[in-house]
Amino acid sequence: AGPGSYTVGTMSERFDCHYCRDPLQGKKYVQKEGRHCCVKCFEKFCANTCAECKKPIGADSKELHFKNRYWHDNCFRCFKCYTSLVNEPFMLRENNKVWCSNCTAAEDAPRCKGCFKPIIAGTVPNVEYKKMVWHKDCFTCSQCKQVIGSGSFFPKGDEFYCVSCHEHKFAKTCAKCKNPITSGGLTYQEQPWHSECFICSNCKKQLGGKRFTTVEDQFYCVECYKGCVAKKCAGCKNPITGM
Ligand SMILES: [Zn+2]
Ligand SMILES: [Zn+2]
Ligand SMILES: [Zn+2]
Ligand SMILES: [Zn+2]
Ligand SMILES: [Zn+2]
Ligand SMILES: [Zn+2]
Ligand SMILES: [Zn+2]
Ligand SMILES: [Zn+2]
């Protein structure tokens, strides 16, 4: 029983109501802090006030109390889902509202960056990235809106792209074949190239990292340039390479 507790019974002795002086013998009465009173006066002068509905909790109502607060048993419900908490675990939260454990867990759970709903631990798989969290199905590509889930992705600022959208949107495009360069490649005259596109025009060997010569926008390896392209010396018949 709480500090404002009282007992209700039927009076067998010759007592009068402390407030209105009506005889109590044979009637229902309330005893609180050593005083006896009728049910009406109890409700008027002594009853605890329900924390929820702010009405007095009369002798005929079932009263619940927690931390010096009182409720009609019918008023003791979850603030969020309105479930009766009379026989349920509960939490006292902001503004003295009582919450059921489900609603408490939902409220305190991290929020999905996609749907803004709470992510309850252990319910559905989720994706975490830099302290942000998504339901797996809410983690989608900014471009094509397909679910990325636990697949590979590319972050760009606040956006996330699936592999293929990232390729098309952001990857460098080869100066020769115009296809995206997903890995490797090289830069020549500030243009990106696939390694396999940057080749000798004659023997098709890759020229990345090797010496080569350009003649009218064509690339030649040293051997091909000497053998086929360079002008031959009229005197000694050797190629004039300038290299
Ligand atoms: Zn009375
Ligand atoms: Zn109430
Ligand atoms: Zn609830
Ligand atoms: Zn979500
Ligand atoms: Zn995409
Ligand atoms: Zn290419
Ligand atoms: Zn060659
Ligand atoms: Zn010569």
TrEMBL record:
Organism domain of life: Eukaryota
Swiss-Prot/TrEMBL keywords: Acetylation, Cytoplasm, Developmental protein, Differentiation, Isopeptide bond, LIM domain, Metal-binding, Repeat, Ubl conjugation, Zinc, Zinc-finger
Organismal lineage: Eukaryota, Metazoa, Chordata, Craniata, Vertebrata
Main location: cytoplasm
Gene3D superfamilies recorded: Cysteine Rich Protein
Gene Ontology cellular-component terms listed: cytoplasm
Domain LIM zinc-binding: 48-109, 110-172, 173-231
Alphabetized InterPro entries for the sequence: Fhl1, LIM_FHL1/2/3/5_N, Znf_LIM
Keyword Plastid (UniProt): no
Protein name: Four and a half LIM domains protein 1
Alphabetical list of Pfam families matching this protein: LIM, LIM_FHL2-3_N
Subcellular location: Cytoplasm
Native organism: Hirundo rustica (Barn swallow)
GO biological process: cell differentiation; muscle organ development
One Gene Ontology term of the molecular function aspect: transmembrane transporter binding
